[in-house]
């Protein structure tokens, strides 16, 4: 119960990673306030909605942020306009991801916060020169999303060095799992593939499928984020959050097809302008050493957990009356 009795603000707490973080914080006994404008977030993802304070609003509202932070110990900043929105509308991305993060830091400085945790992205590495990627490797912002996420990191560093604001940064790589709903049009590739395959539709791979990523199960990403908040040596530092394992999109789709037992075949379509990163796998040694964190969930286990959850959602939303959807899917997925 590391967070028992602590007062925590989570921005973007109704989103995919945010809702998992909020659910964990409440389990650990924290008093949680969520600030989310419900752009992509869904209140239903927060299973403990009755145990938290939910504020519908934006991190672009500085006065609101300052008010909400006035009695908080920790702030986790997960509010974001995601990569797809950001490429279509870089100004909106700038407004939320950069200026919004600046607001979070400025408000935290004004009221005095024990630690601000900023969730950044492996997209700040662009196309890496070496693999696996270390935290101090060259950064290269090859799309507006990467630029705004790095800008957020830079402001974290500036507030830490100039004003002594305690911050820690985690750089996530392709997080997937429970609450990454295909209902969100900007959901990640794992959720998209499951959605198509479960509907017996052909999953589309952009490009040749040989592009690789480091897929991280959400529980592991949440645990690293919590550790970044409470590990004394994490202050002022940045940590990769991945698995250290490289998986191609072709392999990912084959695994998902095998797990679901489907007969569908994937096909290939043109790559999009955001598909300009060929290979990605993170070196997680620093996180192991400093945070004493390591990812516990293999890709196979994480995909099975995700599939189970998606089946449960399907049963819940179907007309068939099923008493206990959780038990019902246990029989389907071992
Ligand atoms: N999911 C991933 O694979 C991944 C990878 C790298 C980094 N990240 C980072 O993790 C964090 C969470 O990402 P996610 O995947 O959960 O995204 P998400 O889109 O599911 O969640 C973002 C949440 O922020 C909310 N939001 C958007 N604009 C807001 C605003 N102006 N004010 C308040 N709330 C706002 C959305 O409604 C949503 O609930 C982000 O900082 C993102 O950059 C995620």
The radius of gyration computed from the alpha-carbon positions, rounded to a whole number of angstroms, is 19 Å
The pLDDT mean sits at 94
Overall spatial form: globular
SS field, number of helical segments: 11
Helix content: 40-55%
Class inferred from helices and paired strands: alpha/beta
> What is the CATH architecture assignment of the largest domain?
3-Layer(aba) Sandwich
Question: Compounds present?
Answer: nicotinamide-adenine-dinucleotide
| CATH homologous superfamily placement of the largest domain | NAD(P)-binding Rossmann-like Domain
Q: Could you please say which CATH topology of the largest domain applies here?
A: Rossmann fold
Supply the CATH class of the largest domain.
Alpha Beta
What does it look like?
With 334 residues, the protein is α/β, with parallel strands linked by helices. The protein contains eleven helices and 13 strands. The chain has a seven-stranded parallel beta sheet with strand order 3-2-1-4-5-6-11, with helices on both faces. Strands 7-10 form a two-stranded parallel sheet. The chain is globular and about 55 Å long. Bound molecules: nicotinamide-adenine-dinucleotide (NAD). The site of nicotinamide-adenine-dinucleotide has 31 residues, from helix 1, strand 2, helix 4 and strand 5.
Task: Summarize it.
This protein has 334 residues and is of the alpha/beta class. The protein is 40% helix and 15% strand. The chain has helices at residues 16-27, 62-69, 83-88, 90-111, 144-163, 189-198, 218-230, 249-260, 285-291, 299-317, 325-330; strands spanning 7-11, 31-36, 53-56, 74-77, 115-121, 167-172, 175-176, 204-206, 212-213, 216-217, 238-241, 247-248, 267-269.
């Amino acid at each position: 119960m590391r967070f028992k009795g602590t007062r925590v603000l989570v921005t973007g707490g109704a989103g995919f990673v945010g809702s998992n973080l909020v659910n964990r914080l409440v389990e650990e006994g924290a008093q949680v306030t969520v600030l989310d404008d419900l752009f992509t977030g869904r209140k239903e993802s927060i299973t403990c909605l009755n145990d938290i304070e939910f504020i519908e609003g934006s991190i672009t509202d500085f006065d609101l942020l300052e008010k909400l932070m006035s009695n908080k110990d920790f702030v986790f900043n997960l509010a974001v306009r995601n990569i797809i929105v950001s490429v279509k509308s870089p100004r909106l991305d700038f407004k939320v991801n950069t200026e919004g993060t600046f607001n979070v830091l400025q408000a935290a400085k004004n009221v005095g916060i024990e630690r601000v945790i900023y969730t950044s992205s492996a997209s700040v590495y662009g196309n890496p020169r070496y693999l696996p990627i270390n935290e101090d490797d060259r950064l290269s912002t090859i799309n507006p999303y990467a630029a705004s996420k790095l800008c957020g990191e830079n402001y974290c560093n500036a507030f830490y060095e100039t004003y002594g604001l305690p911050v820690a940064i985690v750089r996530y790589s392709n997080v997937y799992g429970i609450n990454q709903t295909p209902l969100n049009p900007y959901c990640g590739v794992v959720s998209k593939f499951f959605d198509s395959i479960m509907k017996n539709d052909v999953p589309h791979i952009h490009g040749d499928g040989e592009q690789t990523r480091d897929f991280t199960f959400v529980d592991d990403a949440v645990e690293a984020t919590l550790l970044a908040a409470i590990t004394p040596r994490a202050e002022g530092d940045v940590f990769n959050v991945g698995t250290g394992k490289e998986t191609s999109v072709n392999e990912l789709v084959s695994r998902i097809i095998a797990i679901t037992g489907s007969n569908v075949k994937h096909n290939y379509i043109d790559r999009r302008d955001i598909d300009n990163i060929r290979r990605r796998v993170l070196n997680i040694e620093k996180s192991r050493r400093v945070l004493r964190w390591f990812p516990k969930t293999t890709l196979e286990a994480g995909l099975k957990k995700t599939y189970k959850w998606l089946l449960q959602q399907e049963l819940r939303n179907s007309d068939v009356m099923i008493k206990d959807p959780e038990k019902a899917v246990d029989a389907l997925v071992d």
